[in-house]
UniProtKB/TrEMBL annotation:
Residues 1-19 form the signal peptide. PANTHER family: ARABINOSE-BINDING PROTEIN-RELATED, POLYGALACTURONAN_RHAMNOGALACTURONAN-BINDING PROTEIN YTCQ. Gene3D superfamilies: Periplasmic binding protein-like II (3.40.190.10). This is Extracellular solute-binding protein. Pfam families: SBP_bac_1. InterPro entries: Bact_solute-bd_prot1, SBP. Keywords: Cell membrane, Lipoprotein, Membrane, Palmitate, Signal.
Length: 446
């Protein structure tokens, strides 16, 4: 258990950069469903004990205001249940570790809301309730089962050993952001193939626009490039075998191909001048300023950059285009911030009732107003992410963010991260990258 908790905290540190996605705009969320709305209204509260909810948000952030509105809606629906939501902030991981030593406390959390990458190791340890049976029961405000309301590939990506433990708050994937207005002005089409993408980059470069913006000092984002190309070119089983030290990266030719694809961008001068020394979040600012044509990142960008996005910019997103030698031509990463019910919580049925409202169609407009992508089938889409459901539904294979490699903790941070930064900045060749990756991985596991 101690080893798993240590990994839990390591992953929590990794996702700190990502955890704020969804908290970057001051839009006011719409009201939650009125009392009595939907099929969930006939459910009866179980007991009168306090329902304790822990959120990764800080009090006053837009998402925390939205979550509080759901608490208010639940309290109106179930007035006999006392509800307390605690906005723990990004240190929720360490707080829960401490609380595990006091499971009988009245304020032990029944529900925890956090990134699935942080929660998954605890579910593997049996600290969260399986929800498969609950997902077969009626949804709150739709004529479907609860499970049928969610985008299928999202729910599949969150499963652990085939079991569902989490209810998504939102849905994220990864790809290229662009300005549709800029594309129209330059006569560019959204690229579907690698050659199309190279043509877009050349046109942008010819027009004095940096094709792609990059923070070359940010290992966490730089290693995403190698992972995303590798996911398309080989299987997840081979990626994880190499990451665990059970196989050599050099023995799978697809890894060298992935590194060569990444190196293409620096070799062709497709990153902005000074990209190697750029510090987060400078690259995102260059993109919203129109000084770069493409930004390769996760679907929280519209939220994170809302205050810096000019009104004339038509931000949109497209998937990494198809590669000619791909094994899975449209492998996509799908993940979410999500809620789980703790196995040691005292109000499991009340917690399920809460999560049905939490994930109902009636509260989605409030989430969309914050530019957070909806996890529901046919849920309202933000203008910038109007293609995200298509991207997810068209995936030929799926994984969590970073291909679920964050579970390898220190290897992910201290081996893959620094080498990926050297690769993308052109400091080492693809061949040296693979050789050094094998050397450093072997040393790490020894």
């Amino acid at each position: 258990m101690k080893k798993r908790i240590a990994l839990f905290l390591a992953i929590a540190m990794i996702v700190t950069l990502l955890a704020g996605c969804g908290g970057g705009t001051s839009s006011t969320p719409s009201s939650a469903p009125a009392s009595g709305e939907g099929s969930g209204s006939s459910a009866q509260p179980v007991g009168t004990d306090k329902l304790v909810i822990w959120s990764y948000m800080n009090e006053g952030e837009p998402i925390s205001t939205w979550e509080q509105s759901i608490v208010d809606a639940y309290s109106a629906e179930y007035p006999d249940v006392e509800v307390e939501i605690v906005f723990c902030g990004r240190e929720i991981a360490s707080q829960f570790q401490t609380k595990l030593n006091d499971k009988e406390a009245d304020d032990f959390p029944d529900i925890i809301i956090q990134n699935t990458g942080v929660l998954a190791p605890l579910a593997q340890e049996g600290l969260f309730e399986p929800l498969d049976e609950a997902l077969t029961t009626p949804a709150y405000d739709q004529d479907k089962t609860w499970g049928e309301t969610f985008i299928p590939n999202l729910m599949e990506s969150m499963k652990i050993n085939g079991v569902s433990y989490f209810i998504p708050e939102s849905m994220y994937t990864h790809g290229f952001f662009y300005d549709a207005a800029m594309f129209r002005e330059l006569g560019l089409e959204v690229p579907n193939t690698w050659d199309d993408l190279m043509d877009v980059c050349e046109t942008l470069k010819e027009n004095g626009i940096a094709p792609v913006t990059l923070d070359g000092t940010t290992d966490l984002y730089n290693e995403w490039w190698f992972i995303r190309f590798a996911e398309r070119l080989t299987t997840m089983e081979k990626i994880h075998a190499a990451a665990k030290g059970d196989a050599a990266f050099a023995d799978e030719p697809a890894f060298l191909k992935a590194a060569q694809y990444v190196a293409t961008f620096s070799e062709n001068g497709y990153f902005q001048d000074g990209a190697a020394g750029s510090v987060f979040p400078a690259a995102q600012a260059l993109f919203t300023q129109g000084k770069a044509g493409l930004l390769f990142c996760g679907a929280w960008i519209p939220t994170e950059m809302a205050s810096q996005t000019p009104p004339e910019m038509e931000m949109k997103m497209f998937a990494l285009p198809e590669l000619p030698d791909s094994v899975s031509p449209w492998h996509e990463e799908i993940w979410s911030n999500a809620a789980g019910i703790t196995v040691d919580g005292k109000n499991k049925e009340n917690a399920i009732n809460f999560l049905k409202i939490f994930s109902s169609m009636g509260v989605q407009e409030g989430l969309t107003a914050l530019k957070n992508p909806s996890p529901l089938v046919g849920g309202p889409a933000t203008q910038e992410l109007d293609q995200i459901e298509n991207i997810v539904n068209n995936a030929t294979s799926i994984s969590g963010n970073y291909g679920d490699l964050q579970q390898y903790g220190d290897w992910f941070v201290n081996v893959l991260g620094p080498l990926s930064t050297q690769l993308i900045n052109g400091a080492i060749t693809p061949e040296t990258f693979i050789t050094q990756l094998d050397t450093d991985t072997a040393a790490f596991y020894q």
